[in-house]
Amino acid sequence: MDEPMRRGGRPRRSSAEVLADAAAELFLEQGYGRTTVDQIAVRAGVSRATFFNYFTAKSDVLWLELDAAVASLPEHLAASTEESAVRAVEEALLATARAHAADRVPWAIAQAEVMDIGPELVASVAARVTAQHAAVAAFVAGRTGDHPSALWPQTVSGAMLGAAAAAFGVWVADGVGRRSLVEYVGAALTPVAAGLDAR
User: Which of 17, 22, 27, 166 could be joined to 115 by an S-S link, Cβ 3.0–4.6 Å?
Assistant: First the structure.
């Protein structure tokens, strides 16, 4: 939830963004494991309760931008008029990637070693991938009449999200010379979607 506009016309940064930046500073200074929610709240100038108004756990601050980007995926899927479920998933993933700002690289990935995030990074990524996988599999199942746990919905979801995740990783690793995220995702999805759609 963003704050009102400043007099000069620029929107104030949301409390969530302030908290995420405060967390990033602390993680860089003293590591992820040695940073507490209370310390993040103090650095951001808010209460502990305010922190939990925006995040359910400390690890959630690592994914502010990415969570915002993927939140639109179910909406894109639901709005699709594409006859092929595979192509609908491809379009939805491309729309999600297109909406992600080129300068918003999740520092949880880019600075994971410096911040000493380790296993917490893996666990928080897994939770997010699992949620997206379930959403895509349910969409494909709805189009095909299969159960979401059936082989085809699971295969489409796993293959398409796997390709998109691989593209995202390469995009982050490419550093300052990186192109737009949608270019990477499109290049990764094209052969996968073509293969699945030929079934």
Answer: 27
